[in-house]
What does this fold into?
Amino acid sequence: MTSLQNPYREDKVHEACGLLGIIDTSKARFSAYEPIRAMENMHDRGNGLGAGFAVYGLYPEHRDEYALHVMYLDGQAKDRVEKHIEKHVEVNHAEEIPTDDKVRVVNPPVMWRYFVTPKRGLSEETGEDEYIREMVMRINMATGKAFVFSSGKDMGVFKGVGYPEELADYFMLSEYRGYLWLGHTRFPTNTPGWWGGAHPFSILDWSVVHNGELSSYGANRRYLEMFGYRCTMQTDTEVMAYAFDLLVRRQGLPLDVAAKILAPPLWIEIDRMPSEERKVHTALRQCYGGLLMNGPFTIIVAHHGEMIGLTDRLKLRPLSAAVKGGRVYMASEEAAIRVLCRDPDRVWRPKGGEPVVGRVKALEVVREMIL
Amino acid sequence: MKSYMLPEFNVYRDLERCVSCQVCVNQCTYMVHYYDEEEDLVKSREENCVGCLRCAMLCPTKALKIVPNPTSYRENHHWTRESISAIKVQAESGGVILTGMGCDKPQYTYWDRIVLNASQVTNPSIDPLREPMEIRTFLGKKPKELSIEAGSGRYSLTTELSPQLKLEMPIMFTAISYGAVSFNVHESLAMAASESGTYFNTGEGGLDRRLYRYGDHAIVQVASGRFGVDPSYLEVGAAVEIKIGQGAKPGIGGHLPGEKVSREISRTRMIPKGTDALSPAPQHDIYSIEDLSQLIYAIKEATGYAKPVSVKIAAVHNSAAIASGIVRAGADIIALDGIRGSTGAAPKIIRDNVGIPIELALASVDQRLRDEGIRNEASLVVAGGVRNSADVVKAIALGADAVYIGTAALIAIGCTVCQKCYMGRCPWGIATTDPWISKRVNPLIASKRLSNLLRAWSLEIKEMMGGMGINSIESLRGNREMLRGVGLTDKELSILGVRHAGE
Ligand code: SF4
Ligand code: SF4
It folds into this structure.
């Protein structure tokens, strides 16, 4: 890999990948030790071309500010983007994201984080979240050299080219704590990895890690474009984050309903449902067909207070889930969970298309859908 | 006046094989074949032959060969045989040259310059024999979002959806009017649509009472002539389609000659027997998008907002902007008919030169509606020369919800695309109302052939989807990533919104 950018400008890359999600449902924050251990355990699922983590409950001291993590592939882009940022939001604090330069990673871009609040008056029309989302989309499209890869409050994404344990060292993740962690290691098979193409993908406080390849990408992307989402990261996973942002944050659908839009029951199942249920599911497919995700996938999606694991309807990629005390674990393989908790209260492999949700407070694991 | 026309076809009869059974004499509606008693031989009048091939196909001893007449003018790429013949015909007749079926010029087919994608290693293809493949499609207005309420442990829907048409496959039979075709053909289309879980379109000639029992699978058309339009007609259909234009003859109205208006057709069309059924190109109450909107809502009022209303236009220069207007006027479905759309009769010069290829119109309409954020507001159905299941798959990947087939359906019944429908003597019993010739179509057999065609295409669509790693048609719709162009210019690719093969 000689270029930071994917020189082929592929719209998507293909992957096998290892995924992890851990949520403490009492919202107690814990260190990076466990997620790193689990990702190390799945070392062989990746090939060193991309890995990353998302942490929730990361910046309690900036709880009410949007934390923008930005990667700059050149200095000019930084000047331009910073001018843009300053024009639209109050920057309450800015700093380079600390890294350990002793750790050798390939071509790391310069990364900064900005804690910002929308300028008063400017965001009234759209609401703050939407205002920030629009700004992020604008920045990501503007130069091709600067990408906001994390934009939520009290959370952050750290990602790049390398193995997960290398990137954890590079970003010095052991300094951070959070109540919900996602981890990813990537196995792109036919395109080089680049820093922006690593997972998690994130918009506002949504982040997604994904194993698989979406054959529906073109349909999903064009559906999301109608709602103002611009896919700039050149991979198929990006659409997942935007889909959840659209369905749950903007349209107010429950997370498990959103999961049923991405991986709906088959028509033969819907046709057998009792009438009210059939009506809901039929309407979901009629209305949101453009967001049905096809092809092999396992995803773990998180936002504040909730984490959901989901595979495609045919379950062409693996997912294991476990509960232990107040913790919910999801990973590509049970071994990654077992290194953290030897005797979980329950461990299982969800069926294709059956979402597993871990939620703060409610302390519930929704397994049987009530939809 | 002495005619200078060369016969279009030569009829070769193998006298070794011919047994003088006179099947060809009886079958040929143009009286090409006749029996010469004196010589006890069956002979031909070649100049009458239109190349429908009925005789050759039904000859029990396969004694007949119908061959395009090789005698031609001196080769000339500009003054082709077609252009020279046209001038001679007009010099003799002084009239407009009529033709039937769709445009046959090579330059308009883009389907063949678009190829499909297939899965390989990381995104495996799906085996349709082992995994479910879903091609069910709903046509109608969809809301931008649904609101769902949680109550007593269950979710329920609080958004009320507009009426939808449910198709078990994304293929319907296009508008073909009773009068242009025989009752038997109409009945065959209705039966096959019902059996296959899709829809047929009545065309502008109304719906014969005997076919009301297929109303659940009928899209009833309202055209400028308002033939056969009354409350019961609107009531019995599953959807109503307002016809503004037609791919084969944009800007041209319809004309069913008085000879074809039999007692039954006069009853269905609600016009006097033996009078010409003229439907002008403009609807005289529609001269603007506001007028169209009024008609859409008049129909919705008349049918209690229980049926989707479709508006059909011919694909022309400004289709995208027109389609946007139609959506905003309240249509639930837009039917776009390309330059290859067929007809029972059209001036040949119009058929071959007016309109644009459906592929380009579809791509630009879909993109425009998306850019305006109103693509969900209406379904997009395309028509005009869809020949096989790959054309269907490509249309859906370009952005269509479903396709209408017309010529392909008639070919399934027997049509050989001889392009002489306007003569009303279709030897296959299709484009005719002559009771004697119409009997050649047996609705039971014809509907079986149509159902078989739909089934075959459905299987092929599922195979192609499986090959792409897609198991639900929703994920194919508008998925232009699955398409690549071959041998197209940058401009064509940009309008189609697809990349070149190899990219
Ligand atoms: S149908 Fe065939 S065998 Fe019979 S008369 Fe005609 S050419 Fe001869
Ligand atoms: S319908 Fe009949 S007349 Fe028309 S093209 Fe087909 S075979 Fe010829």
Q: What stands out?
A: The longest strand of chain A covers residues 110-118.
